[in-house]
Amino acid sequence: MSNDFFSGSSEHIWSIPMNLTITSSNGVIGRFRHLLTSATEVVTIPWNPVSSSLSCVDNEAQKGDAPFRLNFNADSTGFYRVHYLVEETSLRRMIKDFQEPNEEKKSEFSANLDLSLRLSRFNFMNDGFALVNTISFLFSFRLKRWMDGIRKLVSLKKTIGS
User: Fold this and answer.
1) pLDDT (tens digit, 9 = 90+) per residue, 111-158?
2) Is 141 within the bounds of a domain?
3) Secondary-structure breakdown of the chain: helix, strand, coil percentages, each rounded to the nearest 5
4) What band does 47 get if pLDDT is binned at 50, 70 and 90?
5) Tens digit of pLDDT for each residue in 150-160?
6) Is the residue at 67 inside a domain?
7) Looking at the domain assignment, is residue 9 inside a domain?
8) In terms of residue numbers, what domain contains 10?
9) Within a domain: residue 89?
C-alpha cells in the first residue's frame, strides 16, 4: 500500500463544495455555490442579489463601513474549516454581537440574522476554538518534550552526583 496520502505526493484532487452567503443588515442578499475541482482555481463570484433593497448597502459603502459580510461554508455544508482573515475592528464587532445578552442592545445587523447565519456564527466560533486547541496541543507537545529532557538530565545528574 502506498503512503502517498500522508506524504502529500498523491495526484488525487478532492472536490470541495464552496457555499458562500452574502448578508447585510436586512438579511441575506446573495448566495453563491461552486464545486472546486482543481488544486488551484480562480472563481469569479457573480453579484446576483436575492433582495432588491440594497440602498443600505450603497449608503454604508459611501461611508466606508463594511455593509455586508461574506460567510463561507454557509449552512455548514462542507466538511472543512474556514480560515477567515478579518480586520481587528470587524472581529471585535462580531464578538460584541455574540456577547450582547439584551436583544435591544444588539446591533441592527445581529438583530436581523436568520437561523442559517446564527449557525454559521457558531461554526465561526467553533473554527476559532479548533485553532486554539491545535495551537495548545502543539505547544503542550513541544513543552512535554522539553520536560522529558529536563527529567532525564536531573536523573543523570543524580546518577553522576551519587
Assistant:
1) 545 555 566 667 777 777 777 777 777 777 777 777 888 888 888 888
2) no
3) 50, 15, 35
4) low
5) 888 888 888 88
6) yes
7) yes
8) 1-82
9) no
